Amino acid sequence: MIVVPDSGPLIYLASANQLELLRLLYGTVVVPRAVFEEVTVAGAGMIGAAEVLAASWLQIEDQTPDPELLRVLDRGESAAIPLAERLHAILLVDDGDARAVATRRGLAVIGTLGVLVAARRRGLVAQIAPVLDVMAGHGMFVSVDLRRRVLEMVDEAE
After folding, report:
1. Relative to the CA of 121, which of 13, 23, 39, 68 has its CA 20 to 30 Å away?
2. Distance between CA atoms of 52 and 56, rounded to whole angstroms?
3. Taking each helix axis from N to C terminus, what angle separates 96-104 and 75-87, rounded to the nearest 10 degrees?
């Protein structure tokens, strides 16, 4: 199975020392060069940059951002969507607009929270709540209601 992530999920998973979950869950992780550079070059010195740079198992792929998508999405999302299409991969993205576009284009889409739920169900993480707390400390917003629903899905109701 192949997953193509956007920058947000890479940064949030790396911030909580959970980046490896992508390799463990999906096997092949292909990152568009635009996303990789967004995290490691533009984001140099910021949370997640060093972890993404050090993840030798990430496959970096050149993919020109789709000009039509650039009208409504950022550069990383505009490269990740066509790459996921080309590879028949799962798209890993949190942004609502990007998720909507990808779904309309027939892509399977998962977000950071979906990765955590899958990891918890497979026994790769003991609890999601502490991971969410770390990610929230690094800027990931999860509404109280969504957090409650996600935790209920894995029997961690607070």
Report:
1. 39
2. 8
3. 30
- Count the Cβ atoms, other than its own, within 10 Å of residue 144: 8
pLDDT tens digits along 94-119: 999 999 999 999 999 999 999 999 99
Contacts 24+ apart (CB under 8 A), 51-55: 51/14, 51/17, 51/19, 52/10, 52/11, 52/14, 52/19, 55/19, 55/20, 55/23
Please give, one letter per residue, the 3-state secondary structure of the chain. CEEEECHHHHHHHHHCCCCHHHHHHHCEEEEEHHHHHHHHCCCCCCCCHHHHHHCCCCEEECCCCCCCHHHCCCHHHHHHHHHHHHHCCEEECCCHHHHHHHHHCCCCEECHHHHHHHHHHCCCCCCCHHHHHHHHHCCCCCCHHHHHHHHHHCCCCC
Which has the closest alpha carbon to 72: 45, 50, 101?
A: 101
Q: Which of 96, 114, 82, 124 is nearest to 12 (CA)?
A: 114
Architecture per CATH, 2-113: 3-Layer(aba) Sandwich (3.40)
> What does the buried/exposed string (b/e) look like for 128-141 if buried means 16 or more CB atoms within 10 Å of the residue's CB?
beebbeebeeeebe
